[in-house]
Structures are given as structure tokens and as C-alpha cells.
């Protein structure tokens, strides 16, 4: 039995359906992420798990027990809020002790647990400080400690890293992974940042307009998106209109308008005549000098339209002969060299026959 | 620093002079060693001494203090609850109902409360009726201050308390109340100052019994403006001033410390 079972949960606000017949199972010990753009229903779902909101229909079961009708304080579920929501009139130690006090724990145990958690989040001497004396990252750590101290069955994290700057964010991501591993509490993490979701999660549920589009491991979500929304939302991807000419168990042959034939990996349920898009990640696309004859089946001529230098890599946006644009990623491995091609350079674009993915229009 | 527009400066000076010169004169003449409010003769504390031998006046002061304490206590209790309710339930009509008495002409309030007591309740006017009347017009002030404080706070703090195991009552006692306390105290002080010097509503609801300070002062002035009146006015002014300063400090401290949201939050 899964630790948390969300069964056919629907939540409407007036005529707007925030969560539409969603079913998700979360296993004990998992780091599970709800990922989606703002307004996709991920926060509403989280609030229903916490008990701040109730589903219009469907069930939320924790350890097999229906949570509907149980107030937030009676649920073995704690939340780390986006704004941290530390009690400003209490010291750090009192903040962390709060859930233990509410649970009626003995003072000695409270003291022991608070010190343990302060240690764990690397703030051993911060017990007597007040929240307004802390930096953003420190507040974040206190919020984690407060959420974990009473060992909830489930810790909900509502975009907890959203307010931090990039560097601190990365540090906290690593700490979060370690915390979860050490303590072994099941995390449900809500975010709109796909890189964060990929880096942290055991499994991700990609949500869009109240629906779950795909639930999978990060690598599956990235490499085998179930539909165009998932492909487009996670990472960068180039798409070209394509029609299926041949569908055999080993591969697909696609016709790209104005470009020619392309070989793509096989996919279940795809039939000859299907129309859709070929989606391909920039790092799977090779860019080379036109004089260099590509060994790969899928290779085409193009012209550099623009490039984006971000330090470690440069993304080239190449215009193909049919007017479509494709992105190619090139690591800047040669020291002191920021780019290999200039705008308007003629180039050859190629990719492996097992790269890219065909996505039906209907999906 | 720029001096600014000289016209603006003189306008400001005139406005403040207009506001404060009468008050300063009252204070000065309360120490004047003369029966007449005409010329400065010399410094004396005689009028204060006379004041403290005036039993009628002391009784009035005592009554007014009792009324102000009771009314501000009741108004703070009810006003805090109203402020919380207005903040919690986003009903448009609720704030209008609570805040209207603040803007209503006092004479209207006085007349309507009087009629309510006499004709609807058949109530004997006295201290109790004054306390009830003062409470009604102070509730709005407390509610406004409390709500303003709540509006500046991060809603998820209260959710966090529930989430971490606090019942609604524990959340109120351990989180909400401590956080709105500065506003509650400011509201109480505000109510006290409003109540202690209220004339119009008191006049309508006092009946014939006990002397009440503002009305007692008025009665004395009807006979003659004696320095004794200046003395009691000065004392009243001092009390009000202290309370207003404390209330203002609580409100401003409260709002700076109450910005509990992290600086970096969106």
C-alpha cells in the first residue's frame, strides 16, 4: 500500500477547475515532486493534502486512512511554506519546538530534539536568535527543521527554495537531498522549476491545467516525455512538424516537410499516417562544419541564425532549409574559445537515429 | 538638506500655531497666579491644589476614569474580535458595519443611543449606559487598528501553526494574539482617550445622576472660566498625550517588526 493515495480528487473554484480528477500514489520514503506552471493545480493539491482545503470529490488516503474531514492539526503532515512562515515573536528554538509542544512532548525530549535538529541543519548556535535576525537561507533551514522535528509521515514543501538566489538555491538543494536521505521522511515537493525537480526527485508528476500529464522518474520525464506539454515544459526542445511514413518495432521513419526523411526511435501506439512533431533536445543535436561529412543518418544543411553563450556551453539556433529552427548545444571545451560558429555560417546539423521523439498531435 | 518652499513652511507654521497656541495658553494660565485669564502675574500651583480639594470635580474624574477603563476594556475585546472577523471573512458589508460608527456624527450616535435606551430598552440612564455608549463608538477604532495589523502579516504564519499541530484556539493564543498585541494595546489606549474626554455622547446618555468630567468642566465654564478649569484641562491633556504617544509607538513598532515575511520573498 502506498503511503499517500490521491484518488480521483477534483477541486473547483466557481467555474474554474483547479484540480481535475487527479490520482497519485506516493510511496513511503520517496522524494516526490509536483511540477507544473503556475495555475496548474499543484499548490491546491498540496493544500488539500495538508488539510487547508477540501476536495469537492475524491479521496486522500494517508496510510490507508481517509483524511477528508480531519483538520490540519490532526494530520501527521507538516508543511514548509514558500514564505517560511516562521513565528516572528518566537526564537529559532521556540519555532522548532512548536510542533513538539503541540504534541505534548516532555520538556527534556523537546530540548534534545530541538538541539538535534539545529545541529542537523547546521545552525547549532542559533537557538536564541529571532527569525528577523536570520538570512534567507538560515530562515529556510529553520523552516525545514521545524517541519521535520516531530517526524511527520509526510513533509510538504511548497516552493521552499523559490525565494533564494541561484547559488544558495543549489546549496540548499543538496542539503535537502541529504536531509531527506538521512531522516527518511517522505517529501512532497511543489515547484515550477524543472531543473530543481529533475535534480531532487525520485519521481515527478508533471501537472498542467489541473491534470497530471505524466508521472515518472526524472530521466524518463526528460528523455521519454509522454506528450508535447511535458516535452516542452521540461528542458529545452526543438520541434519540427512530422508525418509517420513507416512504423516498425525497431524505429520510425518520419517525413519532415521541406527537409526530407528522418529516422526516429519507435514508440508504442504510433501508426503510419499519424501527424505530429519530432521533438529533439539541443544536446542531442550535433553541429559541425559543412565540409565535415556526417556519419549519422539524420543530417541536414543549415545556417546559424543566432547563438547564446552561457559560459560552459553555447546554444546555436540553426535555421534549416525548410525554415524550421533547431537548437544545438556545443560545450566550450577548447580553452579560451567562446564560440565555434558565427551568425550566418553554413553548418551541418545531425543527430543519431535513436535521438529525438515523435509526439502525436492528439496527445 | 533642502529648505523647501518658504510658503509651504509658513503655511505649516501657521497651521501648527492655530492648533497648539490655544492649548499652550490653557497650560500656561493653569500656573498663573491670578483669578483672571487676562495677564500673566506669576507662577503658582494654587489652582491644582484647589482642584484636588474640589470633591465634585474629583468625583467626576473618578467616574470618568471608571467609564473610560470599562468602555476601553469592552471596546478592545469586541473591537479585536471584529477586526479578526473582518480580516478572516472577506464579506464586504462587515467592515462597513463596524467602521461606520467611527465616521458617524457624534450627535447622531448620541441621540440614537439615547432613544434606544429610553424607548426600546426602558433603561435607567447612568454609568452603565455611558459605558455601553462609549463602547459602541470605540469598537470601530480598535477594529481598524487590529485589522491594519493583520493585513500587514503573512497569512501562512497562522496556517503554519495549524499545520504544526495547534488547534484553532491554540493558534489564536500562541500565535495570533501575541502578534496583534501591539495593535490591541494601541486600540485600548485610543479607546481610553476617546472615552475620557467624550462630551456629546456622554451628555446624551448620562441621565441626571453622577457628575462626569467633561460635562463637569463645561458646567464650571458656564459660570466662569477659572484657572481651575485650566488646571484640570492641562491634566487631561497630559494624560491623553501620554496615551497617544504610547499608542503611536506601539503601532509603528508593531508594523516594522510585524513584517514577518522574509525580505527576499517574492
From TrEMBL, chain A:
Keyword entries, A-Z: ATP-binding, Cell membrane, Membrane, Nucleotide-binding, Translocase, Transport
Keyword Zinc: no
SMART domains attached to this UniProt entry: AAA
Pfam families registered for this protein in UniProt: ABC_tran, TOBE_2
Record-listed E.C. numbers: 7.6.2.11
Catalytic activity entry: ATP + H2O + polyamine-[polyamine-binding protein]Side 1 = ADP + phosphate + polyamineSide 2 + [polyamine-binding protein]Side 1
Protein name: Spermidine/putrescine import ATP-binding protein PotA
Organism (species): Nitrosospira multiformis
TrEMBL record, chain B:
Transmembrane segment boundaries: 7-31, 65-86, 93-117, 123-146, 174-196, 229-248
Gene Ontology CC annotations of this record: plasma membrane
Domain ABC transmembrane type-1: 61-247
UniProt superkingdom: Bacteria
Keyword Kinase: no
GO process terms (BP): transmembrane transport
Membrane topology annotation: Multi-pass membrane protein
Subcellular locations according to the entry: Cell membrane
Family per record: Belongs to the binding-protein-dependent transport system permease family. CysTW subfamily.
Record's protein name: Spermidine/putrescine transport system permease protein
Amino acid at each position: 500500500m502506498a503511503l499517500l493515495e490521491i484518488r480521483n480528487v477534483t477541486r473547483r473554484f466557481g467555474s474554474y477547475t483547479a484540480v481535475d480528477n487527479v490520482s497519485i500514489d506516493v510511496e513511503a520514503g520517496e522524494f516526490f515532486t509536483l511540477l507544473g506552471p503556475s495555475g496548474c493545480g499543484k499548490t491546491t493539491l498540496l493544500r488539500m493534502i495538508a488539510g487547508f482545503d477540501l476536495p469537492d470529490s475524491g479521496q486522500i488516503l494517508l496510510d490507508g486512512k481517509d483524511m477528508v474531514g480531519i483538520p490540519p492539526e490532526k494530520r501527521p503532515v507538516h508543511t514548509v511554506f514558500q514564505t517560511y512562515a516562521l513565528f516572528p515573536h518566537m526564537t529559532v528554538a521556540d519555532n522548532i519546538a512548536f510542533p513538539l509542544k503541540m504534541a505534548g512532548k516532555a520538556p527534556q525530549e523537546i530540548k534534545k530534539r530541538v538541539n538535534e535538529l539545529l545541529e542537523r541543519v547546521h545552525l547549532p548556535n542559533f537557538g536564541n536568535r529571532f527569525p528577523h535576525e536570520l538570512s534567507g537561507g538560515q530562515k529556510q533551514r529553520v523552516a525545514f527543521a521545524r517541519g521535520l522535528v516531530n517526524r511527520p509521515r509526510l513533509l510538504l514543501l511548497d516552493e521552499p527554495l523559490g525565494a533564494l538566489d541561484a547559488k544558495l538555491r543549489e546549496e540548499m538543494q543538496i542539503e535537502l537531498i541529504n536531509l531527506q536521505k538521512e531522516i527518511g521522511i517522505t517529501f512532497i515537493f511543489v515547484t515550477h522549476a524543472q531543473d530543481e525537480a529533475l535534480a531532487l526527485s525520485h519521481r515527478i508528476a508533471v501537472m498542467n491545467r489541473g491534470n497530471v500529464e505524466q508521472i515518472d522518474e526524472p530521466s524518463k520525464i526528460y528523455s521519454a516525455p509522454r506528450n508535447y506539454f511535458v516535452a516542452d515544459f521540461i528542458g529545452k526542445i526543438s520541434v519540427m512538424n512530422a508525418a509517420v511514413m513507416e512504423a516498425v518495432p525497431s524505429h520510425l521513419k518520419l517525413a519532415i516537410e521541406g527537409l526530407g526523411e528522418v529516422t526516429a526511435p519507435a514508440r508504442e501506439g504510433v501508426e503510419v499516417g499519424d501527424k505530429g512533431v519530432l521533438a529533439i533536445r539541443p544536446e542531442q543535436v550535433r553541429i559541425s562544419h559543412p565540409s565535415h561529412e556526417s556519419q549519422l543518418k539524420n543530417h541536414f544543411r543549415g545556417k546559424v541564425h543566432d547563438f547564446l553563450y552561457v559560459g560552459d556551453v553555447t546554444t546555436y539556433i540553426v535555421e534549416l532549409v525548410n525554415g524550421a529552427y533547431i537548437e544545438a548545444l556545443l560545450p566550450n571545451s577548447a580553452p579560451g574559445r567562446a564560440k565555434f560558429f558565427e551568425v550566418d555560417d553554413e553548418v551541418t546539423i545531425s543527430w543519431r537515429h535513436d535521438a529525438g521523439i515523435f509526439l502525436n498531435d492528439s496527445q | 538638506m533642502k529648505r523647501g518652499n518658504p510658503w509651504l513652511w509658513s503655511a505649516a507654521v501657521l497651521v501648527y500655531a492655530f492648533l497648539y497656541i490655544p492649548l499652550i495658553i490653557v497650560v500656561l494660565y493653569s500656573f498663573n497666579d491670578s483669578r483672571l485669564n487676562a495677564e500673566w502675574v506669576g507662577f503658582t500651583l494654587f489652582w491644582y491644589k484647589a482642584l484636588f480639594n474640589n470633591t465634585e470635580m474629583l468625583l467626576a474624574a473618578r467616574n470618568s476614569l471608571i467609564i473610560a477603563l470599562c468602555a476601553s476594556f469592552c471596546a478592545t475585546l469586541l473591537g479585536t474580535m471584529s477586526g479578526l472577523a473582518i480580516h478572516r471573512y472577506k464579506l464586504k458589508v462587515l467592515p462597513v458595519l463596524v467602521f461606520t460608527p467611527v465616521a458617524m456624527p457624534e450627535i447622531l450616535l448620541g441621540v440614537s443611543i439615547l432613544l434606544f435606551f429610553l424607548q426600546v430598552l426602558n433603561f435607567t440612564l447612568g454609568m452603565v449606559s455611558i459605558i455601553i455608549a462609549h463602547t459602541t463608538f470605540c469598537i470601530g477604532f480598535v477594529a481598524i487598528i487590529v485589522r491594519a495589523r493583520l493585513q500587514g502579516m503573512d497569512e501562512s504564519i497562522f496556517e503554519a501553526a495549524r499545520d504544526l499541530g495547534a488547534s484553532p484556539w491554540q493558534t489564536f493564543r500562541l500565535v495570533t494574539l501575541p502578534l496583534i498585541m501591539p495593535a490591541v494595546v494601541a486600540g485600548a489606549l485610543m479607546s481610553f482617550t476617546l472615552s475620557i474626554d467624550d462630551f456629546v455622547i456622554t451628555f446624551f446618555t448620562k441621565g441626571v445622576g453622577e457628575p462626569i468630567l467633561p460635562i463637569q468642566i463645561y458646567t464650571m465654564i458656564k459660570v466662569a472660566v477659572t484657572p481651575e478649569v485650566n488646571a484640570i484641562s492641562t491634566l487631561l491633556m497630559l494624560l491623553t498625550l501620554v496615551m497617544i504617544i504610547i499608542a503611536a509607538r506601539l503601532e509603528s513598532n508593531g508594523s516594522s517588526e510585524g513584517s514577518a515575511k522574509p525580505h527576499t520573498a517574492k
